[in-house]
UniProtKB/TrEMBL annotation:
Record family assignment: Belongs to the adenylate kinase family.
HAMAP family with a match to the protein in the record: Adenylate_kinase_Adk (MF_00235)
Entry-linked InterPro entries: Adenylat/UMP-CMP_kin, ADK_active_lid_dom_sf, P-loop_NTPase
Entry protein name: Nucleoside-diphosphate kinase
Keyword field: Kinase, Nucleotide-binding, Transferase
GO molecular function: AMP kinase activity; ATP binding
Annotated organism of origin: Electrophorus electricus (Electric eel)
Superkingdom field: Eukaryota
Keyword Transferase: yes
Keyword Transcription regulation among record annotations: no
Pfam families in UniProt: ADK
Length: 487
């Protein structure tokens, strides 16, 4: 066969390395920046990008009507993610020719021409602090035309947040608005009052505070412009209700900004399910494998299959399985890594459960270059786990499974021949649960991005929780909590 046309198989190690270090995303980011900035020397420009601490920096636009809390949210957001807070007044502070020209228009009560205003924004965003740390534009752009001009200039946000609240609430907020003259922070006599008595004493009413009529006219103008802005940024827009405590509003904004944009990079699922006995790991693995065409790997079943094959390794582990003793880690690792190295796992991905049971096994899995891309802890109380397992049975004649509470035997004849697995006795379960919880804290520390899911609910609800994390990219923002609880 001609070597130029034969099919080539890329070693699985290359895909794992590329995903681990986000090589595909890096190339995508380099090409995008190259097209947007159009440097005269592309090679030197790319070298400069690669020398930066991070190519992917926050680029956020925060929009909303007057009194929706944009300033408060923008300040807190920048403190949290380390970006630069940019407002219209900040853009006009630079001492340049175009800034002075724009101020001249302002002094004459004229609108700054669009092309001049866009140049001012470009000038501010091109400074080293914005390039290095990213930016949050507050109330910029103001209308659809300005948004299109920004896009033509290559200023494209990754996240756009639009705050919304009823006009009556916004009017009440604007009338109760107070400003700290020292810090410029915004407070409210009803909604946000400072904790410090000294700060409360020096608060002032804003100069030129709007009347109800002026506020009504301003809101009408905003609503006409907001529809066009939503259409312009629909691919990256999140509308958030601002008529709730500002702490809750900020939490929703932060969660969205932490969400990473969709990537076209190839991805092979490598899912790890951990949880106590009875948490539904096998069922959820089966559902995921069926829906996403990935390989379901149960470590216990894998060992039984190896023992039944009659191979030399199978003969070695058979005595351990027959006596109920734990198979040595060396043997488990050899059998597991051989299975995960097969073509179906490397091309389609896998969902693993029953391994690892402790940190040492987790470290061995990582050293073998089989690091999971998603880790889930299915959590439930011990009483629920015991009720699920100790009361289940199997009809040896038909293979049908029953449960004393949820699916009892249909008649006395079936009831009489039911078989109960001694492995599921309450005494044995309590021992297994104790062993699991003794290792859980260390495993959660080993997998800091693991997601905890409440397994004490309908299996389909658990599946939805799992899939909500699988379909999106993991957040890549500092100061995140090491693990997050869902459902």
């Amino acid at each position: 066969m001609d070597a130029t046309v034969k099919h080539l198989r890329i070693p699985p190690e290359m895909a794992v390395y590329a995903e681990k270090h986000e090589i595909f995303d890096l190339i995508q980011a380099l090409v995008r920046n190259l097209i947007i900035d159009k440097p005269t020397d592309p090679i030197q420009y790319l070298i400069g990008l690669l020398k930066k601490e991070s190519i992917e920096v926050p680029r956020v636009i925060l929009l909303g009507p007057p009194a929706s809390g944009k300033r408060t949210i923008a300040k807190k957001l920048c403190e949290r993610i380390g970006a630069i807070h940019i407002t219209a007044s900040d853009i006009l502070k630079a001492d340049t020719d175009i800034t002075r020209a724009a101020l001249q228009y302002r002094q004459n009560n004229q609108d700054v021409p669009k092309d001049l205003w866009i140049k001012l924004i470009q000038q501010r965003l091109s400074k080293s602090d914005c390039v290095r740390r990213g930016w949050v534009l507050e109330a910029i752009p103001k209308n659809g035309e300005e948004a299109l001009c920004l896009q033509e200039a290559g200023i494209s946000p990754e996240h756009v947040v639009m705050l919304q609240a009823p006009d009556g609430i916004l009017t009440e907020r604007i009338l109760g608005k107070r400003i700290d003259p020292v810090t410029g922070d915004v407070y409210h006599v009803t909604f946000i009052w400072p904790e410090s008595a000294d700060v409360a004493q020096r608060l002032e009413r804003p100069q030129g505070l709007m009347t109800k009529d002026l506020m009504r006219a301003t809101l009408e103008l905003y609503h006409r412009q907001a529809h066009t802005l939503q259409s312009t940024y629909r691919s990256c827009l999140r509308v958030i209700n601002a008529d709730q405590p500002h702490v809750d509003v900020f939490a929703q904004v932060l969660t969205y900004v932490m969400t990473r944009p969709h990537s076209a990079a190839p991805h092979t699922p490598r899912i790890l399910l951990l949880g106590p006995p009875g948490s539904g790991k096998s069922l959820q693995a089966s559902l995921l494998a069926h829906k996403y065409s990935i390989v379901d790997i149960c470590c216990g079943e894998l060992l039984k299959a190896a023992a039944a094959d009659g191979t030399s390794m199978g003969e070695l582990i058979k005595p351990f399985l027959e006596s109920g003793r734990q198979v040595p880690d060396v043997m488990v690792r050899q059998i597991l890594t051989e299975r995960l190295s097969r073509l179906d796992c490397t091309t389609r991905g896998w969902v693993l459960h029953g391994f690892p049971r402790d940190v040492d096994q987790a470290a061995e899995l990582q050293e073998a270059n089989f690091s999971p891309s998603r880790v889930f802890f299915l959590e439930m109380d011990d009483d629920v786990a015991v009720a699920r397992l100790a009361l289940r049975s199997v009809d040896p004649a038909t293979g049908e499974r029953y449960h004393a509470l949820h699916k009892p035997a249909p008649n006395r004849e079936v009831q009489a021949r039911l078989w109960y697995d001694p492995w599921d006795s309450e005494e044995e379960l309590q021992k297994r649960l104790k062993d699991y919880w003794s290792q859980t804290a260390a495993l959660q520390a080993f997998y800091p991005q693991a997601v905890r899911i409440n397994a004490d609910q309908d299996p389909h609800a658990v599946s939805e929780c799992l899939e909500s994390v699988l379909v999106g990219r993991l957040p890549k923002v500092p100061n995140m909590q090491p693990s997050q609880a869902l459902c």
